[in-house]
Design a protein that fits this description.
- The protein has about 90 residues and is an alpha+beta fold.
- It has one domain.
- It contains three helices and five strands.
- It has a three-stranded antiparallel beta sheet. A two-stranded antiparallel ribbon has the order 1-5.
- Helix 1 packs across helix 2 and helix 2 crosses helix 3.
Length: about 90
């Protein structure tokens, strides 16, 4: 599925991670290092499966058990940011 950071989100990288401001809700958030990596991959790759695969590869390498765990956690994070309106998800045009 195609991912895109919502136009209603203003964000910037900081030394602490990534700071987000959701203009529709007024929410301010700071993503930690791992969340920031996922966020930048969403921005760069724009595809759920690619982001999940890249994070699993980076953190688990060839360890299948860890890879499954990481894929599940990354997928859950993506579902969360989509659900909160920070990221949109849909079928590629």
């Amino acid at each position: 599925m195609q991912l895109r950071i919502s136009d209603t989100v203003i964000w910037e990288e900081t030394r602490d991670g990534i700071s987000l401001y959701h203009t529709e809700t007024g929410a301010f958030l700071t993503l930690n290092e791992t969340g920031a990596k996922i966020w930048t991959l969403i921005d760069k790759l724009g595809e759920r499966a690619a982001v999940v695969w890249q994070m699993a590869l980076q953190y688990a390498g060839t360890n299948a058990t860890m890879s499954r765990h990481i894929r599940g956690e990354v997928d859950a994070f993506i579902t969360s940011v989509v659900g909160s309106g920070l990221v949109t998800e849909g079928v590629p045009a």
